[in-house]
Design brief:
The structure is a single chain. With 154 residues, the chain is of the alpha+beta class. It has one domain: 2-Layer Sandwich (60s Ribosomal Protein L30, Chain: A). The protein is 21% helix and 31% strand. The protein is built from 3 helices and 7 strands. Helix 1 crosses helix 3.
Length: 154
């Protein structure tokens, strides 16, 4: 299992939300990320690089990511006293995880992000600000231990 903590404020600029600029150069459309998205991607690449495996993981993968944002200045003290509360504001989880998945793919944590068969993403406001990542290869059950047609959750 690969686990690590990125000690940064999770970026609110995402691949989707940050938008892309389109310019026509030589009659061909060219796509460019805006500066916030490009900066966030650059930060992810630098911070995740030390944790990459010697060889890309193969087979199905479980990816668990916890995005912890700093408390808002308007946060009531009773909520801060809880230590952590779920975040219900933008950016949404699917947009947050996409940029990180793309960076982990570029760094060859795995061969293709399609290998991620189990994805758990949480986001919260809290004291322990940062991004917590856990990556694990999923071991396939033996034929005798579980029926193939049985749902995974039951």
């Amino acid at each position: 299992m690969i686990t690590f903590h990125l000690p940064i404020v999770p970026p609110k600029a995402t691949s989707q939300g940050a938008g892309k600029r389109i310019m026509v150069i030589g009659g061909k459309p060219m796509f460019f990320k805006n500066k916030k998205a490009a900066s966030a991607e650059h930060d992810f690449l630098i911070l995740c690089a030390p944790y990459r495996p010697a060889q890309p993981l193969s087979g199905p993968i479980s990816l668990k990511v916890d995005f912890v944002f700093p408390w808002r200045t308007s946060e009531p003290k009773y909520r801060i006293a809880m230590g952590r509360v779920p975040m219900t504001k933008k950016p949404d989880c699917s947009n947050l995880i996409k940029m990180l998945e793309d960076c982990l793919t570029k760094l060859q944590f795995w061969q293709d992000d399609g290998q991620v068969a189990d994805l758990q993403v949480t986001k919260a406001w809290g004291n322990a600000v940062g991004i917590y990542v856990a990556i694990e290869e999923i071991r396939l059950p033996s034929v005798q231990s579980k029926k193939a047609d049985q749902p995974a959750l039951f």
